[in-house]
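Re: weekly structure request thread

Next one in the queue (418 aa):
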Amino acid sequence: MKTLALFILLMPYSFAQDCKIPTELKEVDLRSELGPVRDQDSVGWCYAFTAADMLGHYLYKTKNKNLVASIDARELTKAQNLISPAAMAIRYNETYKKDFYESDKAEESPVAEAGNIKKTFELAKENGFCLEKDFPSESFNLVLKKFCVEQNKCALNLEGLLKLISDRAEETRDELTKCELKEILKTTYPSINLSGLENLIQFTNKKKIFSDLVYLGCTKKFRDPEAIPSVVSEKMEGDWTSLDKALDEGKIVGISYSPKFLKAPDINEKKSKHASTLVGRHFNKKTCEWEYILRNSYGISCDNYKIKNYSKKKITKVKDYRPQAEAKKLELEKKLQTNSSLDEEEILEIKDEQRRLDAYLALYSPQMSPARSYELYIDVVNPGKMRNPRLRCDPVTGYLFIPKSVLEKNLVKFYYLK
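Done, posted below.
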């Protein structure tokens, strides 16, 4: 009996303690009331993505009759990313960052970055907001694959699109540039009518093109200041009562914090460098600690939070030039037969090329050499363990589970609706 008592006393604390859910708080999970985790890419509009999530969630939860009537009730029947953060950020910049294009920062980025969650939300409350379907903030692969990858001009993300538009608004307006800009905008912002698009391309410039796009794209400006509550902001000074109460009331909570701890352990930095939302609270019975569910705007993948392990993979590729050679030979034969204006020198050049093609096809005939093969080594990225082992990431949705003890060392402010 004494041996058993001694064993219990010497057990690690995490195993000896009772890990039942404490009664003073309850678990909360609001993830099902939101659309998929969004992706701001490398553009510093995290504050707008946070404000858009807070407003969209409020509309979905309350289904306020005044706003529902103007939006269309069908828009609020399912959880989705309803509000456009890009439109919110552009309007914030119009109001608070008018001098951006006169600063050195305009040389580094096509748009102003960084902002305030509360001010962004209040602007939308007082002046109206835009739906994501009218002014999209994500999923530009269709237009970017054509204008970025083929021309090697920009990245396949939000920053790539903004740079693409900004560069063309700045370039000399030759017909090709106008045509490209029109196709990019028409594909990306289908809600803009053609006449408005023509005027924009004719008269806009780098400084005002994004404001013009919001003006034309957001033809339905939803505004009802009385129907939307104000945002309360509080400094995090150790008291979690208001934050927990907001979650208990079914409200998501915006937060500003230093994001360094997302990618490294043992970080203690209280600086407002990033913004996200907390959408729930979960008690981890293995660690006996409350975890807060973080909805970041880094997309649905966990790769951003994991150590990347690089390796080389050998692949064998086969290159067969025979179909191209045969097609070229037929093309030359047709040219000889149909083009009577060829002079003697041109005919000799064509026949000489035909002989070279015949020699190639004979040398690499299917019997002698089916095709040329070669080995190639490519880099393979294998996401490994979490950079901060105290965090957990849902591999399907991209939501993070963060221990309270980690979050409180880096949390600066939190925001919730009255």
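The longest strand covers residues 372-386. The chain has 15 helices and ten strands.
Next request, please.
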